[in-house]
Amino acid sequence: MDKAEFDRFADAYYDQHRENVAVTGEGPEYFAEYKIRQLRAIVEREQIGVSRICDFGSGIGNSIPFFRKYFPDAALTSSDVSDRSLRLGKQRYPGDGTYVLIEGSRIPCEAGAFDVAFSACVFHHIPHEEHVTWLKELHRITRIGGLIAIFEHNPLNPLTVHAVNTCPFDENAKLIFARSLAKRLSAAGWASPRIQYNLFFPRSLARLRPLEASLGWLPFGAQYVAFARKA
């Protein structure tokens, strides 16, 4: 992961993200909240007790208020290669939380430290040949029976591809097909990876959003989540 690249974009990231998603009629908060809300649903469906969460590639902390909303009793560790991003996240959302700077190819946390490893649109910034290495590292810091949930942009959705191609922050991004990510999860030791597609309707069609929960099998949502357990 390129620390310098993330440090360079940290201060402008929120405004660039807001401009990039404006075509959907929603702001960055909508997309940040949907991920944590869906994570909560997955955790409840899988019947996983959650007291410790690692946000891998937490950036400037867009997910922090929603972790506090949907996981109020869980301790959150925000981890990133960008020290500037971590400092901005702490400034934006002061309060409880741990911030960990990732250096080299290791997350400086103990083995089995977390119930949930979470990542939101980070892996398309990591060279694909390094994916299994980082998935193994996330496997190491997750307890047995714990969960990994990785949200990514869907390269099968043309509007998503256009948004990524026109976003300065994503200039070096390489999108990942869901099946490829599932295979890499398996290669890293995660058990029975599953895929759920998300975000089918813009704000103008918000009345149809209740249907999205039943469309997770359809590979045309703007994003998807790949999730698996540590056996």
Explain this structure.
With 231 residues, this protein is of the alpha/beta class. It has a single domain, classed as Vaccinia Virus protein VP39 (Rossmann fold). Helix content is 35%, strand content 21%. It is built from 8 helices and 7 strands. It has helices at residues 3-9, 13-21, 28-46, 64-70, 83-92, 131-141, 158-165, 178-187; strands spanning 52-56, 75-80, 98-101, 114-120, 142-153, 191-198, 223-229. A 7-stranded mixed beta sheet has the order 3-2-1-4-5-7-6, sandwiched between helices. Strand 2 (75-80), helix 5 (83-92) and strand 3 (98-101) form a beta-alpha-beta unit. Helix 3 (28-46) packs parallel to helix 4 (64-70) and helix 6 packs across helix 8 (178-187). The relative contact order is 0.15. The model has no long low-confidence stretch (mean pLDDT 91).
Strand order of the largest sheet: 3-2-1-4-5-7-6
Shape annotation? globular
The fourth-level CATH homologous superfamily is Vaccinia Virus protein VP39
Coarse structural class: alpha/beta
Q: How helical, in percent, are the residues? A: 25-40%
Keywords:
single chain; 231 residues; alpha/beta; Rossmann fold; 7-stranded mixed β-sheet; 8 helices; 35% helix
How are the secondary structure elements laid out?
Layout (H helix, E strand, L loop, with lengths): L2 H7 L3 H9 L6 H19 L5 E5 L7 H7 L4 E6 L2 H10 L5 E4 L12 E7 L10 H11 E12 L4 H8 L12 H10 L3 E8 L24 E7 L2
Parallel strand pairs: 1-2, 1-4, 2-3, 4-5
Antiparallel strand pairs: 5-7, 6-7
In short:
By secondary structure, the protein is an alpha/beta fold. The protein has helices at 3-9, 13-21, 28-46, 64-70, 83-92, 131-141, 158-165, 178-187; strands spanning 52-56, 75-80, 98-101, 114-120, 142-153, 191-198, 223-229. The chain has eight helices and seven strands.
